[in-house]
Specification:
It is globular and about 50 Å long. By secondary structure, the chain is of the alpha/beta class.
């Protein structure tokens, strides 16, 4: 990483030691996609709400020749263009894009929908710009387990609410939850919640155990699997567009 995007609290970024837990948690979802979903090298991929760009770059490195990062924030997109020059970068509104109907084979949007005021409209737009055979992957924090108070979030969702949001336009093929893996679970059994620890004190006041955990966390410290979604930290839905005739 040649440069770091300044933190505003709205999005996370790699290369910032005290953000490393959150980066790894986001990174785990992108790595699940690249490991478990086919990436067609001749297809077109959109990362909607690409933020810093690390996820879109992972999709490109997994074999997608055409990856577009879409975001609304000009400074962020300047950063993406500099750091990840092989990505296509588009500035735009996620609920009303300029893309032609049926453009993309894969649309990902991770930890984004909770920031949007018009969530149903965003889902409808994803259905429009996907090919009929395309795949949508969305993730969002689980409202039942996520700490309250993030003022960048307009509406957080439970697993049931998340599925209900997609069902008018999509058939859900996989419903998954992200959880702490064995190492983080063992740490918390001894020291308490690592999330609470990070949020209750400034990072320069963290004790050595928490600081070491945060800096050493990687995507491998998280599990993504079905079952018990209400207990998960983040929710991930994989879906395909419904037949257009069934949603008129």
């Amino acid at each position: 990483m040649t440069e770091t995007l300044p933190l505003t609290g709205e999005r996370t970024a790699p290369g910032i030691w005290h953000e490393n837990y959150w980066f790894a948690r986001h990174d785990a979802a992108y790595r699940w996609i690249t490991a478990n979903l086919p990436i067609d090298p001749t297809g077109r991929v959109l990362d909607a709400g690409c933020g810093e760009g690390y996820g879109a770059e992972q999709l490109r490195l997994a074999g997608a020749d055409s990856v577009t990062g879409l975001d609304y924030e000009h400074t962020t997109l300047l950063h993406v263009r500099r750091v990840y020059p092989q990505l296509n970068v588009v500035r735009g509104n996620l609920v009303q894009t300029a893309f032609t109907t049926g453009t993309f084979d894969l649309v990902t949007s991770l930890q984004t929908i909770e920031h949007l005021w018009e969530q149903p409209r965003f889902v409808t737009e994803c259905a429009r710009i996907l090919k009929p055979t395309g795949t949508l992957v969305l993730s969002t924090p689980n409202r039942l387990t996520f700490p309250s108070g993030n003022w960048y979030h307009t509406r957080e969702l439970t697993a049931a609410e998340f599925a209900e949001l997609l069902e008018p336009r999509f058939d859900i093929t996989q419903a998954l939850g992200l959880r702490h893996g064995r190492r983080l679970t063992a740490w918390e059994a001894q020291y308490g919640s690592c999330v609470d620890g990070q949020l209750t004190a400034a990072h320069d006041a963290w004790d050595a155990n928490l600081a070491e955990l945060v800096t050493s966390t990687t995507h491998e410290d998280f599990e993504i699997r079905p079952g018990d979604l209400d207990e998960s930290l983040d929710l991930i839905l994989v879906a395909r567009p419904k037949d257009a005739r069934s949603v008129r």
